[in-house]
Amino acid sequence: MKCLIRLKVNGETYEIAVEPRKTLLDVIRNEIGLTGTKKGCNMGECGACTVLLDGKAVCSCLVLGVEADRREVITIEGLGNGVHPDPLQEAFVKHGAIQCGFCTPGMIMTARKLLDENPSPSEEEVREAICGNLCRCTGYVKIVEAVLDVARSEKGGRDAGLLSHR
Amino acid sequence: MQDYSVIGKRLPRLDGMEIVTGKAKYTDDIVLPGTLAGKILTSEYPHARILHIDTSKAEKLSGVRGIITGKNVPMVQYGFANFVRDEYPLAFDKVRYIGDEIAAVAAIDEDIAEEALDLIEVEYEELPSVFDPEEAMKPGAPRIHEHAERNICSNHVSHVIGDVDKGFRESDYVREDRFVTQNVSHCFLETRNCLADFNANGELTFWTSTSSIYLDRFVLSHLLKIPVSKIKGNRPFVGGGFGGKGETVSCQICAALLSMKTGKPVKITLSREEQFIADRGRHRWIFELRTGAKKDGTIIAKQCRAIADAGAYNSLSFLILMHSVGYFDIVYRVPNVRYDGDMVYTNNPPCGAMRSFDCVQLRLADDSHMDMLARDLGIDTIDLYLKNVSGPGDLTASRYKLDSNGLRECIERVRDDSGWRDKRGRLPVGRGIGFAVGASIAGAKSSNDDPDASSALVKINEDGSVNLLIAAHDAGQGSRTVFSQTVAEELGIAIDDVKVNFVIDTDIIPQDQGSYASRTTIGLGNAVLAACRDAKRQIFEVVADQLHASAEDLEAKDGVIYLKGSPDGRVSFKDEGGALSLCLTSKKVVFPIIGRGHFEPETEPFDWKTGEGNISIAYGFTAKVAEVEVDTETGRVKVLNVTSASDVGKALNPLFLEGQDEGAIAMGIGQALFEKLELDKGQILNPSFSEYKIPTALDMPRTIRSTWVETLDPHSPFGAKGIGEAVIVPMPAAIANAVYDAVGVRINEFPITPDKILEEVEKKGKLGE
Lengths: 166, 769
Hints:
The structure holds two protein chains of two kinds. By secondary structure, chain A is α+β, with helices and mostly antiparallel strands. Chain A folds into two domains: 3-78, Ubiquitin-like (UB roll) (Roll), CATH 3.10.20.30; 87-158, DNA polymerase, domain 1 (Orthogonal Bundle). Chain A has helices spanning 24-32, 87-94, 104-117, 123-130, 141-159, and strands at 3-9, 12-18, 50-53, 56-59, 72-74. Chain A has a five-stranded mixed β-sheet with strand order 2-1-5-3-4, sandwiched between helices. In chain A, strand 1 (3-9) and strand 2 (12-18) form a beta hairpin. Chain B contains 19 helices and 31 strands. The longest helix of chain B has 28 residues, at 520-547. Chain B starts with 15 loop residues before the first helix and ends with a helix.
């Protein structure tokens, strides 16, 4: 039997009838139709499906859709404001931190969470934070560079009072 | 060196914003109304006869819309090389490995399809099986394919140049070693998939994650007896390939067959576990190497006996063996060479092509062997290579023509950049430095009867914008962007004015064979260049009239078309009154101006008995030095830094080259230190990312130095060569040699795991006592 859930995704409220065994990942991709969040393993091992659930970075394949009832989800499509991308999105392009791009949405969500909590991470802290997000293409070098670059500029921006609080 | 405006610049990916915003569509993101989910039933036995398949219970399950088995699919064999086609879309007489596809179900959702698989009853008669290639070659071993005596795929390969026996007799020193490599999986993040939609007109449309959409179309046409004109393939964004998406496989064929059966769109997306089983990754090779040298390090003779486990089907195995022959001598000048190789069927999962076509295993063995030879001779390893290294213009023993070859410079560069002279033999215990070399084809035929052609269209619009239509099978390498740079450079326009297609639609986009053999840079690059020149010629003829000049004397650069050597004779490319305005009023051209380009490399067919032949138009080279730290308590190896230099011909976009090199370093670290598909009687024991570990951000060296040697290859656009495969080749051997330098132990069975290191260190300690 399906359960009716109400969840907020990227600021929009959705009321959906879902089967209790369906994962949040499947709800986001198949019911809501936001396909930016990727399914790489469906077992919480690769991080490609990372989203922010009430501000916490989670593998959406390890959360049931019904668990997201009355909660707030941010996916890759919810970063930036549609016209202006998030600084992390820009930095990933600029630094060549993307290759095939399949890990990228999850990687950016994890990085966003890191920078929200720790605006000035060290290189080791960045590596620790993203070590649950697998990438087979890049060797992570440019991903780490991109995250550190954003950390530097966002911190500079914040200190100068240029960025509104996230 | 020529001065370029766009080529050689660190430009970001043109399709980057699509990817980072989540808008890029991959196959599984594409939804057609009423799509059915497909699932495939696979064999539980490594070798068994199929006596009976009963699908009646499954068919009665509510929500099931169609089931196919080997009985109702075309009895046409397929496979990459036409003389060793040994596979059917679904097994009908027997299964040859755990994972061999038997039946497929389409249902209204994946859960029902999965449930239906459980209801299909298969009656098997188990057959004796064999899992070791050396065992499989012995008389009396179970025969896996009727056509293959002693289970040898196709034929034994023997390549002999000079007289190795005489060479060994004349050598001052001869060393022999045996190495065994492991099965490695591609682990691209997007598993293989296909969405197929067959309609009432008898037309098939499909979307799939592939390195060769045209090859998929060809195979589907061949198997399904639908003319290619009625098959439309779409290649959306692709989540990694590394050679593992170049072959048409069962899930693609079954999606098409199920759509034909049900009349509805059918999507099959492999789960991660299914992908590990269906993946056709690196072969397990056994190499017995023998090298004879003079006291001064001059190599007189080299011999290799290679046996590889192909698994249950040929896939690309025999072709890989052909390349292995050539990779044995490509880095040296050696007068006497002997290579004997066999690809052997077993009841393990089939292996296939993975980044470098298994050159990485051969060089892992040979570069380890050469490092030990150098130590035995008391010669620095790098000096040993420099004494024997191949050079530009060489014709190798296997008939590879190395028109451009910057290997010597790569070696010297990594020696100097890494501080080799100061570090080798001088680091504290537990720290070590190792060196290795690599090479790879940069554009090859996939088989002797394959055209290997590339085509491109350039469409110039009235407003000066340009559409580039190409089948760049870009899976992150950046080829779409590099070819847009090529257009901008050649037409002398801004890259912002170039728009390239992200999706390949076989009805619209001119054909290219795909992304394999590091062939895109040269193959498609030359086609794009030719298309630009064709378009430019049409514009130049109009401009020449205006300037009272000859079209041959015109050049295009930085938005201007000008008369060579004349400061006055110039018109803007797209501004009002410029070249395109002239074209608009001219009767000589019509808009859009279409430039067509085509390229087919001149390569030699190779000899299937010896592996000889110039299979590639160009070859890429690389050298790497790795520094490691080995924890002697735990046996854990940490790669501290890597110094890399690669002959890329010409660096078209250093940002992407670094990306290729860094990714290859990661993959090489995994292969050297921990990646291994664990097989027990044909069963994969670790089909998940928690059990099959690939490198994370924490496993990477904190310092990587990648540099480029530019040899300007004569066959290539701007002199560039594909390098995506070569760059991985030296990485595992550089680590193996560094581990030896650190703790003095040599692991001959890869990967070099902590338990093996500790065991060897302990043995060595006991010997020391």
